[in-house]
Amino acid sequence: MSMEEKTLLITAAGQGMGRASAIALAQAGANVIATDRDRDLLAALPDIDGRLQAKVLDVTDPDAVLAMAAESLDLDGLFNCAGMVHNGTILDLDDAAWDASLNLNVTSMVRMIRAFLPGMLNRAKQTGSVSILNMASMASSVKGFPSRTAYGATKAAVIGLTKAVAADFVGQGVRCNALCPGTIDTPSLRGRIAEAADPVQAEKDFVARQPMMRLGTVDDMVPMIRYLLSDESRFVTGQALLVDGGVTI
Ligand code: NAD
What we know:
- It contains 8 helices and 7 strands, in the order βαβαβαβαβαβαααβ.
- It has helices spanning 16-27, 39-43, 62-71, 95-127, 149-169, 187-195, 199-208, 218-229, and strands at 7-10, 31-36, 52-56, 77-80, 130-135, 174-181, 240-243.
- The chain has a 7-stranded parallel beta sheet with strand order 3-2-1-4-5-6-7, sandwiched between helices.
- Nicotinamide-adenine-dinucleotide is lined by residues 11-12, 14-18, 36-38, 41, 57-60, 81-83, 104, 135, 137, 181, 183-184, 186-189.
């Protein structure tokens, strides 16, 4: 099935990798529902021949998730991109910070998949194949990083969730994979650099952990995202795909 026939929904499409993939997938011909909690960011999305539809969705709002699933067409693809970084070791992590990371990084994906999967199963009966993509990270069960306790633990849970969903629905035409990027130059990374005590050193440190000696770009991520949401990846499921510029060589 071609991209032109697909309807895809992306969370956190207001900026960063979600935005870049929403634009690229609409340019590839898909009908894309670009969602974010930030109305202003959505308003700045370009028009791509009417194929990029922006809708406000805070993925931590269970009622809003259910309402969007009820009003949406049955999806061919769902990209759960929303997530956050808590900076700190376990000694810096109080219950409120842990709950916030778990809620956005994991529970929101559980709710999104649970809400949209029945429609996706209907669609899979017609087309044979639908795809769920969950945003994880190289900082997860794959590799530990300093000051990333809540982040690493919750992104590891995303990989576990991905494999569980893939195992349960592999016989019904549903594929489910996780993307594990390296350090990517996005607005939130720029925010983490700006908030550091020494921003110049902080940027150098982020670059130094990438063996190619540069940050990744959103355009480095888009081809893998497009692949995983297209039928080209029809024999790929339950995988955590690393696009990390060689960090985990
Ligand atoms: P970003 O962090 O710059 O932007 C995040 C977007 O998420 C914003 O538009 C924001 O409005 C939206 N958002 C935040 N909370 C939301 C909510 N509750 N509901 C809906 N939207 C919400 O973008 P990014 O850096 O590309 O990160 C996107 C994803 O990629 C995250 O899950 C992040 O953990 C993951 N990731 C990022 C990097 C990196 O280095 N940037 C690396 C690996 C994984």
